[in-house]
Backbone:
């Protein structure tokens, strides 16, 4: 019963987060970690904690996320959850501008994935694979480039990820495609970025998600320096979609 409750709470929390109901999501995830502990499923609780840390990053509290992941790292036993925690920890360090620590933890996840996560990966963490980790690397590169004002280097990981994630939810693939378009614009590829953005926006129009809306705002920021007609069209479309899908909803 506790194991089933943990699974349901994890799902309900993610749906609430995707709808912008962040406080409700935290309550569900708290129930989930408690239920997973009562069921004796430590790694299930660890996976739920990574979801909370993801929300902390999203809400602009990376230090809180780092604290949660530090506790999770001590409790993770499965290769899949250890890799997930390492990947997420690297992502947080990137958000904090600590390139050395970001590289260290992302490299740890690389090593665990290269060694293989085993044949008995539980279904609730089976979404974490090389493609998911590539997404964390891409966002980390984007954050570090923005903080250090250096040349962005996020295009390659974003480019490879949509093809590797064909079986994933449409929402995730849309987020990847919007991220690729933003990375191209960040790299000065206005024409290619605009073309990729239009394709991504066609898909985004069919997905109602506050997480996609967040990526649309990232795209708007990347498009800001350009005055070409194609990029202006991208800005107009992205702004309209982002307005229709606000990133926060009162709990």
Residues:
């Amino acid at each position: 019963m506790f194991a089933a409750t943990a699974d349901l709470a994890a799902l309900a929390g993610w749906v609430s987060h995707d709808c912008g109901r962040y406080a409700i999501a935290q309550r569900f995830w708290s129930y989930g970690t408690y239920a997973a502990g009562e069921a004796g499923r430590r790694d299930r609780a660890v996976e739920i904690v990574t979801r909370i840390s993801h929300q902390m990053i999203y809400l602009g509290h990376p230090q809180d996320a780092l604290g949660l992941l530090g506790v999770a790292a001590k409790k993770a036993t499965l290769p899949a959850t250890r890799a997930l925690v390492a990947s997420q920890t690297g992502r947080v360090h990137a958000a904090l501008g600590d390139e050395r620590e970001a590289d260290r933890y992302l490299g740890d996840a690389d090593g665990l994935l290269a060694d293989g996560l085993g044949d008995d990966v539980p279904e609730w963490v089976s979404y974490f694979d090389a493609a998911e980790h590539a997404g964390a690397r891409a966002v980390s590169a984007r954050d570090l480039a923005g903080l250090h004002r250096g040349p962005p280097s996020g295009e390659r990981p974003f480019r490879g990820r949509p093809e590797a994630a064909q079986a994933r939810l449409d929402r995730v693939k849309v987020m990847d495609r919007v991220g690729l378009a933003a990375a191209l614009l960040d790299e000065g590829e206005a024409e290619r970025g605009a073309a990729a953005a239009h394709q991504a926006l066609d898909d985004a129009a069919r997905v109602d998600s506050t997480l996609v809306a967040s990526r649309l705002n990232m795209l708007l920021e990347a498009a800001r320096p350009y005055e070409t007609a194609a990029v202006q069209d991208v800005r107009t479309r992205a702004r309209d979609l982002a307005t229709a899908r606000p990133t926060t909803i009162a709990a």
Notes: Confidence is low (pLDDT under 50) at residues 149-169. The first helix runs from residue 2 to 18.
